[in-house]
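User: I need a structural model of DinB family protein from Nonomuraea zeae for a docking pre-check later this week. Nothing fancy, just the predicted structure tokens so I can convert them on my end. Input:
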Amino acid sequence: MTDLDEQGRPEPPAAADETATLLGFLEFHRATLEWKCAGLDAAGLSATVGGSPLTLGGMLKHLSYVEDHWFSHYLHGQDRQPPWDTVDWAADPDWDWHSAAGDSPEQLRTLWADAVARSRLLADKALAGGGLDQLAARAWSDGLVPSLRWILVHMIEEYSRHNGHADLIRESVDGLTGE
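Assistant: Understood. Predicted structure tokens for DinB family protein:
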């Protein structure tokens, strides 16, 4: 059983193997983003801080894309699925961030939750097939191929960075603070 902290987030294991530790930290950071976005309406998810255009809604959509990009598209070589399959990324490389303003809070939360659920299943499939050393089905443009280990560490970094942004934005919306 996983211990939960006061916000209901799963505590990463203090002493576990590499796989459990990596997955534990990724789940903790996913739960942190969910906590920072919980209970907010469209105005709250659209709030910005200072001169930054970042919003919590944009973060949910961006991290939905990042989940699908790494676990579905790269790790398992799947074609891009809606809504990512029709985006003209050359015309708007930040489409995921910008388009979130037109989505409802429910759409954003569902998009993110579905992407996370798919990613969990796809990570489990890769772990069963080759463990952390499992190489992605797709190579980068320079020919290098990331491992599942690299993808998990990158995802932890991605969530950690954006959770710092989420802290500032959420505090500006309603004063909610905490790690």
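Before docking, keep this in mind: The chain has a mean pLDDT of 95.
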